[in-house]
């Protein structure tokens, strides 16, 4: 550092040390003087610059708010140690300028810099802007692992693929949240009354992109059907290659859902009565499994007719299930109520102040499926009972503004039924 301090200013190849004469900065001579007095370390050099006042020469009392630009006279490739003379035998190349932007007040005072915009940000910089980089590539799969059986590859741009997947999930009625930074969709659906969460992610895979669907929990067979449905829709939109011809009937990959519509009499009762008894069980897992099964089975006419034989006891059981704290219980229970409310006997049993208040309270649930099925149950009760129901139109105003089109549809039908 002492050798550098004794050198002449003409050795600097980068031109003059100071480029803005309006801002008072520590001159090279001052630094030399400090160096001669024994300040040889990098910390001492910084202290010398900090002690110099950042004030205008025309108005010494007012501090400047524009920037501090100065040169650090050391080799860019030099190594730093804790010793005082860290830089030795340096060969000066070009000065290193540090510019610190501190607001636009100095801009109004007449201090300008061609590299700065009005707000003090470097021109061409994207810092602070909300513009997304549409050319950003998806990340690589963690550890290089990809689900082999539920992944396809595409050459479509990631931004376009995200738009296509978003539209397909909406058409399939899947609840999802999107993370564009990770190129990820966090999805939930409820086949047969059971919750089935899964993720869809786009990864960079060589010159192509991998679209992976990963099951987080739930029925694996239902997940396989959902993936095939998703893959078929992607093929129609050109996101992947067309599927092979469908397998012959009789395999596990069937499209229909199992409904006890063909069973009658004692055979139907022997199948449904154990499920109703399980729904009244004190064990949460047994109760949840039975309620989820009934949520699917009550879509059939034969099951509804069998449930009507014991309207009072079944409706009382369902009201108890609606107030269960466990979401895995009250979510399928409200689906059962919505399915059975199309029958006049059940709609009359559910058209009570306590039951309606429970359904209205469930409209504020954080789960989209609970809100959707609660609105459907209220709509079915109102349509079946017409003016006999005690539902108020003020209680469904929020449903009309819902972002879920299915909730909006139920709310409009409910509003028409209440007129």
From TrEMBL:
Span list, region Disordered: 1-35
ARM repeats: 354-391
Superkingdom to which the source organism belongs: Eukaryota
InterPro entries in the record: ARM-like, ARM-type_fold, Armadillo
Name listed for the protein in its UniProt record: Uncharacterized protein
Compositionally skewed regions (Basic and acidic residues) per UniProt: 1-12
